[in-house]
């Protein structure tokens, strides 16, 4: 029996008999020859079916093979620069697994609602395939970046007894006799792990019950969050810069074909090299006001402000030292300006806005107790978190990056709904 191979392996089997299993992308006939474009998830190939080789009966049965029918084909591979993937398969026999019904997604305009209702099928399209292959590469690059730097992966809980930034945008659920929340971040637990291991990261799903319909928001998304002991704000700014450069370079190196499918302007990605521009919050406010924004000092940036700011630069922009009043309770105050927090956001260029948020955490016990009171948060609920400031507390810092926003930016997408296999949005829980 010839070997069963994937289409990613065809270059290793030129001029050899192989078996390939997959689905029909499309079929066309030219008299006594039929051409089937076959996909298997790793690539595509043109299979050539000849009536003289297969015989009239099997040749006619191939006419049933409509889009998304599944089959295995056996034949000899040959290099052909004109063919998709650079190879063709001269079929000597085939076996049909299933003749598909009429496929609902056709090469015509479909509304977004229709495509999202058929997301389970839309994933098979070349565009969605390219996006999710790039997502896969980004996820792998994230893990490799931290693994290569001796970070330890720590899996943080999804059920949490309290929130790290208030409960107004959290999904609440019953946990036996207690109330629990779906985690909006693994950060607090990451801080505990950093005190044990020095350098850690968590990587998993997070949830925000934010009633937002913008192109940047999902209710369920994935975050990678490093946390580093003995680190301060400048350290994590440099770490975030190196992190993004590495991810973009990996995609440029490994996913050129997928970027071509998306018609991504790769020159924009090739410009992502260090150093990144850095602005204080006050400098960013002044920049926005010059651009026509009505924002005043003390106001948080909205999506339009982030877009306006990031459009001013060709590289990611790091904005740091926001007012403490608009940041989370755990942010370390600037010793020179206690009204400012030692925090930072990284805004992606081309108007994509915030993709990373982080900063230095409060490491003084009394300061943290005071901040909990200011935010009207229960000291008892955060007793374990306060313990971290009682037993060998050190300066520490970290950040979080939303995978979907990074994928949207790197792929050049208009909306994050295409960046995850099955998006959960304000009005979308199906399929």
UniProtKB/TrEMBL annotation:
Coiled-coil segments on the chain, per record: 245-272
EC numbers: 6.1.1.22
PROSITE patterns according to UniProt: AA_TRNA_LIGASE_II
Catalytic activity: tRNA(Asn) + L-asparagine + ATP = L-asparaginyl-tRNA(Asn) + AMP + diphosphate + H(+)
First-listed, main subcellular location of the protein, grouped into a coarse class: cytoplasm
Name recorded for this polypeptide: Asparagine--tRNA ligase
Gene name, Swiss-Prot/TrEMBL: asnS
Subunit field text: Homodimer.
Domain Aminoacyl-transfer RNA synthetases class-II family profile: 132-431
Pfam hit, one: tRNA-synt_2
Alphabetized UniProt keyword annotations: Aminoacyl-tRNA synthetase, ATP-binding, Coiled coil, Cytoplasm, Ligase, Nucleotide-binding, Protein biosynthesis
Family to which this protein belongs: Belongs to the class-II aminoacyl-tRNA synthetase family.
GO molecular function, one term: asparagine-tRNA ligase activity
Enzyme class of the recorded protein, top EC level: ligase
Subcellular location: Cytoplasm
């Amino acid at each position: 029996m010839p070997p069963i191979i994937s289409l990613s392996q065809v270059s290793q089997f030129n001029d050899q008999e192989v078996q390939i299993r997959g689905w029909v992308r499309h079929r066309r006939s030219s008299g006594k020859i039929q051409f089937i474009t076959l996909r298997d998830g790793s690539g595509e190939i043109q299979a050539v079916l000849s009536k003289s080789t297969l015989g009239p009966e099997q040749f006619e049965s191939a006419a049933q093979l409509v889009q998304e029918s599944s089959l295995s084909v056996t034949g000899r591979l040959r290099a052909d620069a004109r063919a998709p993937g650079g190879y063709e398969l001269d079929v000597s026999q085939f076996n049909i697994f299933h003749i598909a019904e009429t496929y609902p997604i056709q090469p015509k305009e479909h509304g977004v609602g229709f495509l999202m209702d058929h997301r389970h099928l839309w994933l098979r399209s070349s565009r969605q395939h390219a996006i999710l292959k790039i997502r896969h590469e980004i996820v792998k690059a994230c893990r490799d970046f931290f693994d290569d730097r001796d970070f330890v992966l720590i899996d943080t809980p999804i059920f949490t007894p309290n929130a790290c930034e208030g409960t107004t945008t959290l999904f609440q659920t019953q946990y036996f006799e207690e109330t629990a929340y779906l985690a909006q971040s693994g950060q607090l637990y990451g801080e505990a792990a950093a005190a044990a291991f020095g350098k850690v990261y968590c990587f998993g799903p997070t949830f925000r019950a934010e009633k937002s319909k913008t192109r940047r928001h999902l209710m369920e998304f994935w975050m990678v969050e490093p946390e580093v002991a003995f680190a301060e704000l400048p350290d994590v700014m440099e770490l975030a810069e190196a992190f993004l450069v590495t991810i973009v370079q990996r995609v440029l190196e490994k996913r050129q074909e997928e970027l071509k499918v998306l018609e991504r302007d790769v020159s924009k990605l090739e410009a992502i090299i260090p150093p990144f521009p850095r602005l204080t919050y006050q400098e960013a406010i002044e920049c926005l006001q010059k651009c026509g924004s009505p924002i005043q000092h003390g106001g948080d940036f909205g999506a339009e402000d982030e877009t306006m700011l990031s459009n001013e630069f060709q590289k990611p922009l790091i904005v740091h030292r926001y007012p403490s009043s608009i940041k989370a309770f755990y942010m370390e105050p600037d010793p020179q300006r206690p009204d400012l927090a030692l925090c930072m956001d990284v805004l992606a260029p081309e108007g994509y806005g915030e993709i990373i948020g982080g900063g230095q955490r409060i490491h003084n016990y009394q300061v943290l107790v005071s901040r909990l009171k200011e935010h009207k948060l229960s000291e008892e609920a955060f007793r374990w978190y306060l313990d971290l400031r009682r037993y060998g507390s050190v300066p520490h810092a970290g950040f979080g990056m939303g995978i979907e926003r990074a994928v949207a930016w790197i792929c050049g997408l208009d909306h994050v709904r295409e960046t995850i296999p099955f998006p959960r949005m304000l009005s979308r829980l199906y399929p």
